[in-house]
């Protein structure tokens, strides 16, 4: 036995109990009371600590070309930061280039990720071009290569139209793939942008208004209808509005395999942040919404209608956010010239666990949202997402008594600010193991560049709302 974590309180999606965990060759080899170490075993005293599965962040954008620049955290900085927040697997988005077969897109991005990743990773493919049958058919090769999840964007200039979205959904149904969607109504968004800019409304607040509640909600409803028409499952990423929550709930109540993800930023902040002095730092898509949407998201977490919490980690520097004032070409900026996205990879699990520690939801629920459900949804539950014999020893020790105030200087990414600055958490992860290797301990990153592995996922077949 290589490692024995003794005397902790294990938290799974289903239950909480005291037990020891033994690790051999990076896998959990036994769970039970009074497990005995042998002479080569490293023994960790976890008395008084919660022992949790490492989180799986189902939505990151590392080193992503976007908004006229590249997101700040590369695969090393991003996964280093993830490890220090208790996240042991990240699903990063590959953006397919025009005319690029899916398997080429995987190879292109893995060449960047493999030498750098400090924790395990996999990919979703952001589909931008299915203009030929060959490109559409190449989705199947991605599934065979262990990348069975795709995302379409209903917004942005690289987004697809409803016809292409529908073709991707049809294709996915037959090949064991899951389609995720960034749902916002591009046409309405573009009309509002034009009108606001013509009226001299340039501040970050107008980013929110141009993508307000119903701009997202309409697209959620349309995306669900397209999935129903194609007879397949759907995963709505970064859900942030009440109308969308209601549409997801209704479809699930009718028995459709519709799943939703939300992010901590929508659970903690509201659109009021766009009135702050540095409102531009909070510009992301979809934007934070009003209180009613936030309450609906928390209710949907409690009812099980939101399946996962992920980060949408896509950080940019303050200087890049300042392009909302003066663009990089020295022209007057506005809310459309701010790169969209915020950092969150290191704060997701700590924030969600803190909410559990404060009594809003159970720790089991957090494990379900941040580890077990992402593993099930993305075809990874044969290897990750739970404290279970035979699975990877991705394990987090959590101190419920540790008080922690988020500051950017305490984070481990390459970003120069965090929208979470000054937020107080109750409890914090104190150690992270990635396949049995200690990669984080009490504020310090102990992992290594390149030790993370590409995880191949199984084909995904979701036919009911249950996971
Ligand atoms: O603002 C965001 N979310 N940036 C990343 C790209 C996306 O839409 O997920
Ligand atoms: Zn998105
Ligand atoms: Zn995203």
SSE arrangement:
Blueprint: E1 3-11, E2 16-24, E3 27-32, E4 42-45, E5 50-53, E6 55-60, E7 65-66, E8 69-70, H1 75-84, E9 87-95, H2 102-113, E10 120-127, H3 133-144, E11 149-153, H4 162-175, E12 178-182, H5 186-198, H6 205-210, H7 213-230, E13 234-236, H8 242-253, E14 258-262, H9 264-268, H10 291-303, E15 308-309, H11 318-321, H12 348-357, H13 363-377, E16 395-405, E17 424-434, E18 437-441, E19 444-445
Parallel strand pairs: 1-4, 1-5, 6-9, 9-10, 10-11, 11-12, 12-13, 13-14, 14-15
Antiparallel strand pairs: 1-2, 2-3, 5-16, 7-8, 16-17, 17-18, 18-19
Bound molecules: N-(aminocarbonyl)-beta-alanine and zinc ion (2 copies).
Strand count, sense and barrel status of the largest sheet are: 9 strands, mixed
Terminal residue distance: 33 Å
Enumerate the distinct ligands. Answer: N-(aminocarbonyl)-beta-alanine, zinc ion
- Binned, the helix content reads 25-40%
CATH class term of the largest domain: Alpha Beta
Radius of gyration from CA coordinates: 21 Å
CATH topology of the largest domain: TIM Barrel
Task: Specify the structural class.
Answer: alpha/beta
Mean pLDDT: 98
Gross morphology: globular
Overall number of domains:
2
Count of individual beta strands: 19
Q: What percent strand? A: 15-25%
The CATH homologous superfamily of the largest domain is named Metal-dependent hydrolases
CATH architecture identity of the largest domain? Alpha-Beta Barrel
Low-confidence stretches: none
Helical stretch tally: 13
């Amino acid at each position: 036995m290589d490692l024995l974590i003794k005397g902790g309180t294990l938290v799974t999606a289903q239950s909480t109990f005291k037990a020891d965990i033994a690790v051999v060759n990076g896998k959990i080899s036994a769970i039970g009371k009074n497990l005995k170490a042998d002479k080569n075993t490293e023994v960790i005293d976890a008395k008084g600590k919660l022992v949790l599965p490492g989180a799986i962040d189902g939505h990151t954008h590392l080193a992503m070309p976007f908004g006229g620049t590249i997101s700040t955290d590369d695969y090393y900085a991003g996964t280093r930061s993830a490890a220090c927040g208790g996240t042991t697997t990240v699903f990063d988005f590959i953006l397919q280039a025009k005319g690029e077969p899916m398997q080429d897109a995987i190879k292109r991005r893995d060449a960047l990720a493999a030498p750098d990743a400090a924790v395990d990773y996999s990919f979703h493919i952001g589909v931008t071009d299915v203009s030929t049958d060959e490109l559409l058919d190449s989705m199947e090769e991605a599934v065979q290569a262990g990348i069975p999840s795709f995302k379409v964007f209903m917004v942005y200039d690289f987004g697809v139209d409803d016809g292409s979205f529908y073709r991707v959904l049809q294709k996915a149904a037959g090949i064991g793939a899951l389609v995720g969607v960034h749902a916002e109504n591009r046409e309405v968004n573009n009309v509002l942008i034009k009108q606001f800019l013509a009226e001299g409304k340039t501040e970050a607040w107008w980013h929110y208004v141009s993508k307000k509640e119903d701009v997202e909600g309409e697209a959620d409803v349309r995306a669900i209808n397209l999935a129903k028409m194609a007879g397949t499952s759907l995963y709505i990423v970064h859900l942030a509005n009440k109308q969308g929550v209601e549409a997801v709930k209704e479809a699930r109540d009718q028995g459709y395999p519709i799943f939703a993800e939300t992010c901590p930023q929508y659970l903690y902040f509201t659109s009021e942040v766009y009135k702050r002095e540095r409102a531009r730092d909070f510009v992301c898509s979809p934007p934070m919404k009003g209180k009613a949407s936030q309450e609906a998201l928390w209710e949907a977490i409690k009812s099980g209608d939101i399946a996962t919490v992920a980060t949408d980690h896509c950080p940019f520097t303050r200087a890049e956010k300042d392009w909302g004032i003066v663009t990089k070409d020295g022209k007057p900026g506005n809310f459309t010239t701010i790169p969209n996205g915020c950092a969150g990879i290191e704060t997701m699990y700590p924030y969600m666990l803190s909410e559990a520690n404060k009594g809003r939801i159970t720790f089991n629920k957090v494990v379900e949202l941040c580890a077990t459900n992402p593993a099930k949804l993305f075809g990874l539950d044969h290897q990750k997402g739970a404290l279970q014999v035979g699975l990877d020893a991705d394990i987090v020790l959590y101190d419920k008594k540790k008080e922690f105030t988020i500051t950017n200087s305490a984070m481990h990414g390459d970003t120069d600010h965090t929208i979470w600055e000054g937020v107080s958490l109750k409890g914090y992860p104190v150690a992270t193991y990635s396949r049995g290797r200690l990669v984080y301990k009490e504020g310090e990153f102990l992992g290594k560049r390149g030790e993370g592995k590409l995880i191949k996922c199984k084909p995904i077949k979701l036919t009911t709302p249950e996971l």
